[in-house]
Automatic annotation (TrEMBL):
This is Multiple sugar transport system substrate-binding protein. Residues 1-23 form the signal peptide. SUPFAM superfamilies: Periplasmic binding protein-like II. InterPro entries: Bact_solute-bd_prot1, SBP. Pfam families: SBP_bac_1. Keywords: Signal, Sugar transport, Transport.
Length: 453
């Protein structure tokens, strides 16, 4: 049973091709680097008499973060290597897990991947290694995203509270007020279309994590999983809330109110730049991504603003998240307690956090940053000087309650992509797609040896 689950996780990881929320710097990497070998550091270790913890990570400012940690710490030093971004790193980690050697002491992992590695006993529960000293530095929702059951398998660094980015020029031209509900969103989209305006948004097949988040906002709970019962999992992908969300976007697409272009593509970015879409439903990391992709420059400079995510029920608002990464301690760590100190301390000092959010590398989850007046009151250039953090992103992050991810999240996301593509093609309704998704994922879970509740 256990071997079947481990094998299944390895297969899923090998096939994973999902985009990550954080951009790579394209710097120091190497197929032969890393693991527990502290001689392969990208950085220079200044205090050579101290014990060394090895780590893998791909944040663009990782060099600065590691240097800051090593400079300020007199108990342990970090040997950092970038072995690749996202799936490239995960493939190497999976190889090390299978071999029983070659993994670093600390590893950067996207939060939705934590259960995939936890079920293989590849990560350490860090609750027993000083968790109480840092527990208050992060919100309840942030901790839930890095937890499996009552155990904590990572330190949350960055997240992606969702919001609605919009074109001020388009809203002004068609006399649109930022919609507070999804019903108002549809009404505004129809108004713009009737007036001969552009598409109001986009329903893409390749953003399954976003679709999941919007379903959770409506009340869905896709997975229930407790590591105390590692062979049992709850899968509920075709409940009424999930069907309602898929039917909603299917209706908007069929009426021509929103597009169906894959996101994170040159074609989509070109459309954003040229005013093809009035809104962009995305996460707090989106301004950094869009800026890097050339949006908000030249003729479209100063045309973007952001508003809170529309709600399904205005009287009971629910905030959701897309993306985010953490530092986890691996089960191959030579000294788990020292490794936990590194995980807790990396990207937790003011200089590193400030550099991260100032340069739009991360949306910080550390409350020392979220509550910092400099961060809260920042006038965001991309949004024409709007205080986006104060008005939108910080309240959304503070209200976020977290989610339960599954041990086979990538399979689920891929299966969701397949069903949304079928909706876009017109071969199924949203409700039918949800039923097909439920059947597909339940079948897969059973194949991997799970009992599905």
């Amino acid at each position: 049973m256990k071997n079947r689950r481990v094998l299944a996780a390895a297969v899923v990881l090998a096939a994973a091709t999902a985009l990550t929320a954080c951009a790579s710097d394209g710097g120091a990497s190497g197929n032969n680097a890393g693991g527990n070998n502290a001689s392969n550091c990208t950085n220079t270790i200044p205090k050579k008499n101290l014990p060394v913890v090895t780590m893998w990570g791909w944040y663009p400012n990782m060099q600065l973060v590691v240097d800051n940690f090593n400079k300020q710490n007199n108990e342990v030093q970090v040997c950092w290597t970038n072995v690749g971004q996202g799936s490239d790193e995960y493939d190497k980690f999976q190889t090390a897990i299978s071999a029983g050697t070659g993994a670093p002491d600390v590893i950067m992992i996207e939060m939705d991947r934590i259960p995939t590695f936890q079920i293989q006993n590849a990560l350490v529960d860090i609750k027993k290694y000083g968790f109480d000293t840092v527990k208050g530095d992060y919100s309840e929702g942030a901790w839930k995203d890095v937890s499996v059951g009552d155990a904590v398998y990572g330190v949350p660094v960055d997240g992606g509270p969702l919001a609605m980015i919009y074109r001020k020029d388009i809203f002004d031209k068609y006399d649109i007020t930022p919609p507070k509900t999804w019903d108002e969103y549809e009404q505004a989209a129809q108004k713009v279309k009737d007036a001969g305006g552009p598409l109001f948004g986009d329903f893409a097949a390749n953003v399954s994590a976003l679709t999941m988040a919007l379903q959770i906002q409506k009340g869905a709970s896709p997975f229930t999983y407790d590591p105390a019962q590692p062979t049992s999992i709850g899968v509920k992908l075709n409940d009424q809330a999930s069907k309602d969300v898929l039917d909603y976007w299917a209706r908007l697409a069929k009426k021509g109110l929103v597009g169906t272009q894959d996101q994170f593509t040159p074609e989509y970015i070109s459309g954003v730049i040229n005013g093809k879409y009035a809104t962009y439903i995305s996460a707090a990391w989106a301004p950094g991504y869009l800026t890097g992709a050339g949006v908000g420059k030249g003729e479209d400079s100063g045309k973007f603003a952001v508003a809170p995510l529309p709600q399904w029920d205005a009287g009971n608002p629910v905030q959701v998240n897309w993306g985010g990464s953490a530092f986890s301690v691996t089960s191959q760590a030579k000294n788990p307690e020292l490794a936990a100190k590194v995980a807790y301390g990396l990207y937790a000092d003011k200089e590193s956090l400030t550099h991260g959010w100032t340069n739009q590398i991360i949306f910080p989850l550390n409350l020392k940053a979220l509550n910092d007046p400099e961060f809260v009151n920042l006038k965001v250039e991309f949004f024409g000087g709007q205080q986006a953090n104060k008005e939108v992103y910080v309240p959304a992050a503070n209200a976020y309650k977290g989610v339960t991810y599954s041990p086979f999240g990538q399979y689920y996301f891929d299966a969701m992509t397949k069903q949304v593509s079928a909706i876009i093609e017109g071969s199924v309704t949203g409700a039918q797609a949800a039923d097909r998704l439920q059947e597909d994922v339940v079948s897969y879970a059973k194949e991997q040896g799970f009992t599905v509740q």
